[in-house]
Amino acid sequence: MDNKPALRNYRKLQPQIFCTEHPDAPLVEDYHAGDMICPECGLVVGDRVVDVGTEWRTFSNDKSDKDPSRVGASENPLLEGGDLSTMIATGVGGSEGVLDEHGKPMYRNRRTLNSSDRALINAFREIGQMGDRLNLPRMIADRANTLFKQVHEGKALKGRSNDAIASACMYIACRQEGVPRTFKEICAVSKISKKEIGRVFKLILKNLETNVELITTGDFMSRFCSNLSLPNSVQKAATHIARKAVDLDLTPGRSPISVAAAAIYMASQASADKKSQKEIGDIAGVAEVTIRQSYKLMYPKAHLLFPEDFDFVTPIEQLPAQ
Questions:
Q1: In the 3-class helix/strand/coil scheme, how is 52-81 assigned residue by residue?
Q2: pLDDT digit string (tens) for 55-64?
Q3: Going by C-beta distance under 8 Å and a sequence separation of 6 or more, which residues neighbour residue 137?
Q4: Whether the Cβ atoms of residue 56 and residue 68 lie closer than 8 Å to each other
Q5: CB 46 within 8 A of CB 55
Q6: Residue 84: in which H helix or E strand, if any?
Q7: How many angstroms separate the CA atoms of 86 and 77, rounded?
Q8: pLDDT reading at 159 higher than 70
Q9: 92, 134 contact by CB (below 8 A)
Q10: Which residues have C-beta within 8 Å of that of residue 226, sequence separation ≥ 6?
Q11: pTM of the prediction?
């Protein structure tokens, strides 16, 4: 007996989901949210859609582990063999075939990592954590990883701490990618002192024969002003002041960071959004006395440093002398 007509009639009697405004529009299924969405107006016309995709399961012995992957970690071209390793789990409860005659696991790891790959993995993990703490994009961490591998293979810095090399590589990668960070910022997210990072930084440049662009006051200005919640007009003025101070050679021997901090202080004091030297120093990682010294060098020529269209709230004559 042919049941096809009855089946067709049964399907016609089933409730159909469609958009009341656009009944002919094919609905889009969002399996992640479990919704049926009209592509014309965005109306959610159905929910609780069953996800017919793959159901991930973990087969590890430790049930607390989250392991939605059946093929292991992704290939890492920086590791020998791409890190395509196979892990053999130990049995639970002394299952036969896994434990030897003495009751000990026969296999823990099919491929035992050598010391070189182990050092690379630990360094890559440290670099990744530093990048996360500094809110840096992944490509900068990748460049730092490549630099570390070059240093590691060259064996020119034997005896130096891998953490110090990793921190210096992160500093170099930031400068090469055009988003420089200060030594103090790198030091704050690593376990290494500022002096040691600077020492290893010079050794890496010498041994790899690589170079980095000279840092300028403009490299830090937008980030410092943003962290201080200063308006765009003050940032533009501070950038102009710092550039003119460098062009007029008013701050010889001063670091670009201290000049930028002094320029921000001068611009903010002339505006309605005044910031103290302590507030600026906390953000820039510069001591108050350092800002004060750079500011005192710039103050006598303040009338030459401000942009012509700057809207003064406090006249130059009333700016603090130090």
A1: CCCCCCCCCCCCCCCCCCCCCCCCCCCCHH
A2: 555 555 554 5
A3: 131
A4: yes
A5: no
A6: none
A7: 17
A8: yes
A9: no
A10: 235
A11: 0.62
